[in-house]
Design goal:
The complex is a heterodimer of chains A (about 260) and B (about 350). Chain A has about 260 residues and is of the alpha/beta class. Helices cover about 35% and strands about 20% of the residues of chain A. Chain B has two domains: about 5-145, no CATH class; about 160-355, P-loop containing nucleotide triphosphate hydrolases (Rossmann fold). Chain B has helices at about 15-20, 170-185, 200-210, 230-245, 265-270, 275, 290-300, 315-325, 335-340, 340-355; strands at about 20-25, 35-40, 50-55, 65, 70-75, 80-85, 85-90, 95, 105, 110-120, 125-135, 160-165, 190-195, 215, 250-260, 280-285, 310. Chain B starts with 13 loop residues before the first helix and ends with a helix. The model of chain B has no long low-confidence stretch (mean pLDDT about 95). Classes of the chains: A alpha/beta (about 260), B alpha/beta (about 350).
Chain lengths: ~260, ~350
């Protein structure tokens, strides 16, 4: 059942709507729905970070999505129920998103079997882990400035593929390597803050800060593909000058948004 | 043996009788408007021939499973249409595809035949008096095989997992349905298929309820039962079912084999490398740790290393731990199988297995 508060954009090319989830584990979300939907256009699922500003995600991506006739789905992993959502496993944020996508398809709001997935900060953590579990669901992956990554190594999950849960992520990794992946990080996102996960182990594995960690993850994926005899992955790394760890600033700059809507 | 049926024995009111009858689920593919006559001599019935019969005595089966997918209580005097067929059910009836002056309802779903053995818990089968075999416009008996899927080559691009078990009621159907559900939740377009067994709507409906996009079974290949059918026919049917699943857009299939791995048709099929090559992986459903150990050994002798264990054993943490220790395999319960992440990982392991086998 929809429980929607609607806002209409001035340009009329899309409308923003808040959809309240029903049920204890149902996700709320913000939607940006195009005025003219293009049949078969995969929606963009845009995942917030720990600021949990799903509306900002929907707003920032709405014009680009509307131009392509597709919807933006910005799930809201609220703090009360979804602490640690970015690591996927503790509370199975993956299943909550899958359920939301099923419901939206049932309601005719979007065809959600395959979609583009983007995330900023904690949303990018969630995004790359979700794509490892369900690479078949993802067309293009855009990952901006996560605090740390799951690497294709034997480190215990969530740092690597070690342990029973790590094996689940590992099982989809090779297929994920076949996706179109764009990694984005601000050139000035090179300092630790109160949200940076720090330990000697993670620093040694991934580097000291988000920029270094993004660079290391991209390199690790390329090395993993080569080591497995797979084709070189379609992965790009954009280090955006003048930007730090601020979604609004990254969105205003345009490069991140354009990346998420690359054709 | 070929039976010649005199034209005089074909009654013109057969269509009306058939229309009044309760049609068994296993005959669901038959176009009922094809009924043009009745061959009153039913002794020569072959497996799959449609028998028009009147219920003579209610026994073990008090219901018939209808084409519509619901059970219908039986009353003495009811008219029914059921295919002639055999049945192998270790905890119910064993019987053959033979029709005499009376016939036994071997399965409510169903098949008519002659019971040869029954489990100790079972009462006498429900008995029917055959009125004859339904015939088409050409005067020949209508047979399920005429309504079967066309033979087809095994498709490429369909990832398949087989579910085999220690015995009847080991948890194979729940395993199959749960895995189909997990795969559907993960976004796969999944077929749930029963490759062998006796026609009935229980498993079929369980697959549908689980959210499988396509549900098929051996009755779609013209068999009311696979017991005593030639392995080559069963193998060809498997290919046709997989091809149908692929043609209907599925990219994953979960295929259940009835009974235990020692049952003759299941054994013949999974011992056939060509059949095994249809699957990237197997799940073994079982009820206890010792049968897990024995079953895994039996499968190894047939060239199969299961991906995991499942079934009733998973309901007992102690038995599951014993089974895992004895086999080195994980025991997956129904929640595991319904978990989209687990299901997606399983099908990917199967895809890897298929690539390595190729």
């Amino acid at each position: 059942m929809m429980h929607v508060m609607e806002k209409r954009a001035k340009a009329g090319a899309f409308r923003l709507a808040f959809r309240k989830g029903r049920g204890k584990r149902a996700l709320d979300c913000w939607l940006a729905l195009p005025a003219e939907a293009e049949a078969g256009a995969p929606p963009l699922v845009a995942v917030h970070g720990i600021a949990r500003d799903a509306e900002a995600q929907a707003r920032a991506h709405a014009p680009g999505a509307a131009a392509a006739g597709r919807a933006v789905i910005a799930p809201l992993f609220d703090e009360a129920r979804w602490g640690g959502f970015q690591r996927v496993k503790p509370n199975r944020a993956d299943r909550a998103l899958l359920s939301l996508l099923d419901e939206l398809e049932d309601e005719g709001l979007a065809e959600t079997r395959r979609f583009d997935l983007s995330g900023f900060s904690g949303g990018a953590q969630f995004g790359h882990r979700f794509a490892m579990l369900y690479p078949e669901r993802v067309r293009r992956l855009t990952l901006a400035a996560p605090g740390f990554w799951t690497f294709p190594d034997e480190a215990p999950f969530p740092y690597g593929f070690g342990g029973e849960w790590g094996a689940k992520f590992a099982s989809g990794f090779e297929r994920m390597l076949g996706l179109d992946i764009a990694v984005f990080v601000g050139a000035e996102d090179d300092r630790r803050d109160e949200n940076t996960r720090v330990s000697p182990g993670i620093d040694a594995q991934q580097g000291p800060h988000r920029r270094a960690r993004a660079e290391a993850w991209v390199a690790a994926l390329k090395a993993a593909a080569e080591g497995r005899g797979l084709p070189a992955p379609r992965i790009s790394l954009t280090v955006a000058p003048g930007l730090g760890h601020d979604f609004d600033a990254c969105a205003a700059d345009g490069a991140l948004i354009n990346l998420a809507h690359r054709g | 043996m070929t039976i010649q049926f005199p034209a005089a024995l074909i009654r013109t009111n057969a269509a009306r009788l058939a229309e009044r009858a309760k049609w068994a689920f296993s005959a669901r593919r038959v176009a009922q408007e094809d009924v043009a006559g009745l061959i009153e001599e039913a002794h020569g019935a072959r497996a799959g021939d449609l028998v028009l019969a009147r219920v003579a005595r209610i026994g073990q089966h008090r219901n018939i499973q209808l084409v519509s997918g619901r059970p219908s209580q039986l009353y003495e005097g009811d008219l029914i249409v059921m295919p002639c067929g055999a049945r192998y059910a270790a905890d119910q009836f064993e019987g053959v595809a033979e029709i005499g002056a009376e016939a036994d309802m071997l399965a409510g779903g169903g098949v008519l035949g002659r019971m040869r053995a029954k489990h100790g818990k079972m009462g006498a089968p429900t008995r029917v008096t055959p009125l004859g075999l339904l015939a088409g416009a050409d005067g020949a008996p209508l047979n399920l095989s005429a309504y079967a899927l066309a033979p087809a080559r095994r498709p490429a691009g369909l990832s398949a997992i087989a579910v085999v078990g220690a015995s009847m009621n080991a948890g194979k159907t729940a395993t199959t349905a749960s895995l189909a559900h997990g795969l559907a939740r993960a976004g796969r377009r999944v077929a749930a298929i029963k490759a062998t067994g006796t026609g009935a709507f229980g498993d079929y409906n369980a697959y549908l309820d689980a959210g499988a996009h396509v549900v098929l079974d051996f009755t779609d290949c013209g068999m009311a039962s696979t017991y005593r059918e030639a392995p080559a026919r069963l193998s060809a049917a498997l290919d046709a079912l997989l091809a149908e699943a692929a043609a209907r857009g599925c990219d994953a299939a979960v295929v259940e084999f009835a009974d235990g791995v020692l049952q003759q048709e299941t054994d013949a099929l999974i011992s056939d490398p060509r059949v095994r090559s249809a699957f990237g992986g197997f799940l073994f459903a079982t009820g206890c740790a010792l049968s897990a150990f024995g079953g895994v050994s039996a499968l190894a002798a047939r060239g199969i290393a299961p991906l995991a264990l499942s079934g009733l054993v998973a309901r007992s943490p102690l038995l599951a731990a014993e089974a895992e220790a004895a086999t080195g395999l994980r025991v997956l319960d129904l929640d595991d199988l319904r978990d989209p992440a687990e299901a997606a990982a399983l099908i990917r392991r199967a895809e890897c297995g298929a690539r390595e086998a190729a």
